[in-house]
Amino acid sequence: MKTSIDYGNLMHRAMRGLIREVLEDVAEHGLPGDHHFFITFDTTHADVELAQWLTERYPTDMTVVMQHWYENLDVGEEGFSVTLNFGDAPEPLYIPYDAIKTFVDPSVEFGLRFETQEEEEPPLAALTEEEDSAEEDTDGDKHDAEVVSLDSFRK
């Protein structure tokens, strides 16, 4: 029996599901309007597939842009593959969802940020407004709660 609910991992799984759903739609219909993505991922993740010269150039993390030119977007259960252009050199990439550090669509000021377990900040710290509040139990004890505002994703 579990002793607590792991909200952090549940939230990360939900956010990765959102990324997958967005990418599936883009794979089927293309990028609508001015939408485009900046995706930062961990290049040291065991399942990332990247050309050797890109791994050497980006030994810890890398940000790719999906906007005007991309090919072969294939969205799977655990990650996605896409061919992107690096200085007129098309390169295929495979990025597992759990290697993603940030996913941003600046055209609508939307962004997700994934914190690692080693970091001390709570998940989504940079992209949400946090308020420390106290919730009173029936016995009068106070418990700290974290309030996450969805308004911080809108402008």
Question: How would you describe what is shown here?
Answer:
The chain has helices spanning 7-29, 52-57; strands at 37-42, 61-66, 70-75, 79-85, 90-96, 100-105, 110-113, 130-136, 142-148. The chain is α+β, with helices and mostly antiparallel strands and 155 residues long. The strands form three sheets. Strands 2-1-6-7 form a four-stranded antiparallel β-sheet, with no helix packed on it. Strands 3-4-5 form a three-stranded antiparallel β-sheet, covered by helices on one side. Strands 8-9 form a two-stranded antiparallel sheet. A hairpin with a 4-residue loop joins strand 6 (100-105) and strand 7. The N and C termini lie far apart (42 Å). Residues 117-155 have low confidence and may be disordered.
